[in-house]
C-alpha cells in the first residue's frame, strides 16, 4: 500500500508542479497559465481534456494573438521580453 501512495504522490508532484513549469518554458506560457488551463480543460472535458489541455491552450493563444482586438496585448508582451 505504501508503494502505491508513494507513486501517487510522485505523480501528483510531477503533474502539478514540474510539468507546468517545463511546459511553460517550451511554449512561452507562464506555468500558472498551464496549470489553470490543465484544471479548466479537465473540468470541461474530463480526462481527454487533461490530455489535450496544453494544445488547446496554445490554439486559444494563437487565436487571441491573431485577433485585431487583442494585438496590442501581444505587442506589449513582446516589448516586455526585449527589456
Order of helical and strand elements: HHHHH
Give the biggest sheet.
none
Which structural class should the secondary elements be placed in?
Answer: mainly alpha
Give the helix proportion (percent range).
over 70%
What is the strand tally? 0
Strand content: under 5%
Radius of gyration in whole Å, from Cα?
Answer: 16 Å
What coarse outline follows from CA principal-axis ratios? elongated
Average pLDDT, all residues: 78
Q: Kindly, what is the distance between the CA atoms of the first and last residues, rounded to a whole number of angstroms? A: 52 Å
**H/I helix tally:** 5
Give an account of the 3D structure.
- The chain is mostly helical and 83 residues long.
- The chain is 87% helix and 0% strand.
- It contains 5 helices and no strands.
- The longest helix has 26 residues, at 2-27.
- The N and C termini lie far apart (52 Å).
Amino acid at each position: 500500500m505504501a508503494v502505491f501512495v508513494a507513486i501517487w504522490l510522485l505523480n501528483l508532484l510531477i503533474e502539478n508542479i514540474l510539468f507546468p513549469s517545463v511546459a511553460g518554458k517550451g511554449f512561452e506560457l507562464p506555468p500558472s497559465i498551464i496549470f489553470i488551463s490543465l484544471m479548466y480543460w479537465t473540468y470541461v472535458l474530463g480526462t481527454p481534456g487533461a490530455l489535450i489541455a496544453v494544445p488547446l491552450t496554445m490554439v486559444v493563444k494563437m487565436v487571441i494573438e491573431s485577433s485585431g482586438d487583442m494585438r496590442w496585448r501581444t505587442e506589449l508582451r513582446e516589448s516586455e521580453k526585449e527589456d
